[in-house]
Design a protein that fits this description.
This protein is an all-alpha fold. The chain has two domains: about 70 residues, no CATH class; about 70 residues, no CATH class. Helix content is about 60%, strand content about 0%. The protein contains ten helices and two strands, in the order αααααααββααα. A two-stranded antiparallel sheet has the order 1-2. β1 and β2 form a beta hairpin. α2 crosses α5 and α2 crosses α6. The longest helix has 15 residues. The two termini are about 30 Å apart.
Length: about 170
């Protein structure tokens, strides 16, 4: 049995990142560098890049986004925190309609896919299942599983039940 029974039965953010198609990784990395809420993770990435290519932090900071994106994409692995932020940045930049459809289906008020309330009561298992099925009917399976898995890792207390549904299972592309 597992040493950590409270961990969701889905790939960790770093595993989700590794499984992403190259074009989605590029979109995610680009969105990551443009994300104004990712300062800590961007600092981690800048330090990682600087160490990897033996540049000063200041030199990496001054690089254009496309160059920093290239270095993130060529890194064999990233931390769980950085992977999670890459995934969130991707969804915020490229999956707003699916995010909004999911929140509509689960009955949570939002503004263009962003939850409008400070505190959200965890939806019932039935509401989550209905919402997962609703977006699975309208969006590609790999996009749905990536989104649901990202939600689970972002806030397991609210979204943890999603890990049990077939829609959250990553399918081979």
């Amino acid at each position: 049995m597992s040493d950590a029974p409270d961990l969701p039965d889905i790939p960790r953010p770093s595993q989700l990142w590794k499984q992403l198609a190259p074009e989605k990784k590029r979109l995610a990395a680009d969105a990551f560098w443009r994300d104004e809420h990712a300062a800590n993770e961007q600092a981690e990435a800048i330090a990682m890049i600087a160490q990897r290519i033996k540049f000063r932090l200041k030199s990496v900071l001054a690089m254009p986004i496309d160059k920093k994106t290239h270095y993130v994409l060529s890194t064999p692995s990233v931390s769980e925190v950085m992977a999670a932020r890459l995934l969130v940045a991707y969804h915020l930049a490229h999956q707003r309609s699916m995010m909004g459809a999911f929140l509509d289906a689960v009955g949570i008020k939002h503004e263009d896919g962003i939850i409008a309330e400070d505190e959200v009561q965890p939806p019932s298992r039935e509401a989550l299942q209905k919402a997962a099925k609703a977006i699975a009917a309208s969006y590609p399976a790999e996009d749905v599983s990536l989104y649901l898995s990202t939600l689970v890792w972002q806030d397991p207390d609210t979204w943890g039940a999603l890990a049990d549904f077939p829609e959250s299972k990553v399918t081979a592309a």
